[in-house]
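# step 3/5: fold
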Amino acid sequence: MIIAIHQPNYLPYLGFFDKMAKSDIFVIYDDAQFNKSDFQHRNRIRIYHGWKWLTVPVEKKHIPINEVKIRNEVKTWKGVKWSDAHFKDIHDNYKDAPYYSIYADELMRIYKRNYEKLVDLNMELIRFLMKAFDIDVEIVFSSELGFTSKSTQRLVEIVEALGGDVYLSGPKGKDYLDVSLFERKGIKIVFQDFKHPVYKQRYDGFVPNMAAIDALFNVGKMPE
């Protein structure tokens, strides 16, 4: 049983879904500490001269991700609500992409809803992309498991509780995981070896590691 664990990022990139597709159970680490420098409330889309950040305005506190509230009162300098501005940026830059029209209405409905918490918005987008990429995997929220330990010990306890014998880690796990804790429990660690595929984007040149909607709108599936 392969278990993968990841924070609920905003509009995650393809590597997130590659990890998800290779797992039997995918744990949403929703009670990890919010990190304003990470991708939990922002990601990038492709635009004509490179890329652009889309950032959800949130209360930037040192609290778990699942407690982070969206600042829905925030508007752009033109007086447009942040969510409408995000969808407009997506629409303007992908409206001529081959597969955009297939998914535009559903995505627009997501952005038209009001979300109090960041995790709820992120999960709506994650489930939208799971469906679009035809990924069928069991989702479990770490907060529902009730563990309070820290770092590697927390990950070990989650994998063990779910009956996992393989932990699929992101490549950066090599820098911080205490592998011995997994070994003591007979759990094998596999580090994700994700090589970003190259595909035809809406604009000339190729820029990797965009939000996964870039691949969806341009290719219509998970590119290999």
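# step 4/5: annotate
The mean pLDDT is 96.
# step 5/5: archive (pending)
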